[in-house]
Amino acid sequence: MITHAMEDYLKVIFKLEEECSSVTTQSIAERLQVQSPSVTNMIKRLADLKLVEHRPYRGVVLTVTGRKAALEVIRHHRLLELYLAEALGYSWDEVHDEADRLEHSISENFEARIDRALGFPSVDPHGEPIPTAEGEIAQALGRRLTELPEGSQVFVELVSDTDPEKLRYLGDLGLFPGANLTVIEQMPFDGPVRIRVDDTEHVLGRQLAETIRVSIRSPHESSR
Length: 224
Fold this sequence. Notes:
CATH superfamily of the domain at 143-221: Ferrous iron transport protein A (FeoA)
CATH architecture of the domain at 143-221: Roll
Largest sheet: 6 strands, antiparallel
Structural class: alpha+beta
CATH topology of the domain at 143-221: SH3 type barrels
Low-confidence stretches: none
Strand content: 15-25%
CATH class of the domain at 143-221: Mainly Beta
Oligomer: single chain
């Protein structure tokens, strides 16, 4: 039986696999804010269940079974985020932590009812793709805001949901998925990014700007 703690590990490993070429015990420990020996012990348990394996130069890798389990938890999480936002009036900076508490507890029947009630959505409130019930997930669209040349006119595709304070700040600037913006200046030497949202200019620190993915598609072409 896969425990809630195991599901948390599988979810984190999946996200780290998306972000970097090698998933180490240290990167898992940092993301989960636990000690490395605890991670080592859990990885051994997951490997015994054939949910992960170690590969040279790639570190910890999800097996097919482990990936399916990770995507099931992520599906619960992102559907819950959208349900909390659209049906219960939660703000987009509140839904992540609430969904974290609920994602392990809902049944498959409840998950299916939420999916149907929301009209079978494809993305969560932050623009992240929602895995299908069959265990498939679309690749996140768009490019990082920091990668675009000056003068680019784009739309916000997704915003990382890991930090509520950053989400509140970006929300105050109007940087929700679907918002249109113009890149005015990419300041040199890893400096900040100057943008225009509607008719208002803002300067974003580079680290914050990297949490935003943008696309040239219009909001009407969104998969939502």
